[in-house]
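Posting for a labmate who doesn't have an account.
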Amino acid sequence: MIIREIFEYCAEGQKLKHIYDDLNSKGIDSPKGGKWAPSSLVGSFVRQTGMLRKTLYNGFVTFNKLQYRKQPENGKRLSIVRPEKEWITVQFLNFPSSKKKPF
């Protein structure tokens, strides 16, 4: 499983560049279907995105992280990160989570 392999690389102290270069050389597509990059792994600190930051891969699911509004100028949807105190986090039962949180 790719996710487990990524977390094992991190636990071993592998650098991000080594991890995404290895995944790309094996021909494994990133979550969005393209090449792996640092942002695929660590994403944004503020939004808590990227595989290594997502609570889902550590045995938790988080709801209410984002709020969506339409921009009045063009009608496009804009996502806004809610304050962390408004997030709702629920633990999975019997989820084989990573013992060590790398980020």
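Reply:
Got it, the structure tokens are right above this. The mean pLDDT is 87.
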